[in-house]
Design a protein that fits this description.
Length: 170
Amino acid sequence: MERPQREATLTELVEAHQGELRRFVLRLTHDPQAAEDVVQEALLRAWRDPHLLDHGGPGMRAWLFTVARRLVVDRWRSAASRHESIGAASVEPGEADRSAEVLDRWIVLDALGSLSVEHRRVIAAAYYEGRGIADIATELQIPEGTVKSRLHYGLRALRLVLQEKGVTRP
């Protein structure tokens, strides 16, 4: 791609996603200055990545949000290893590991929200409540085969959503 066209595409990417990216990072950091720093670093990395435009529209957005999330986690981990504070709260090493877990759960819950109600209900019952196929089938008044099918296709859809977000590899 020619340089002027690449610059125009990256400028459109920034205009389309900068506000939402800033809100996303602010929810993670609870610190406006840290959020601004992370967003700027993510956008700078997008600008420098020669292969970013190969991902396509949704892929570029997913890449940007994944980079921002990883930058936030890296900041928490580095501050925790130096026993520094982030924002108003002091972070201990065990808490830094917990923050990555919380971020992962938030991303999975967000991805679950994109599934159909039927798929989400079966996945939640099986994986979050630890219930068996027969128990789920009885509660939902559907055949066990339908429960198995919804689990299979629901997990498959969940994997695709997470791939689009850049969380997992294809």
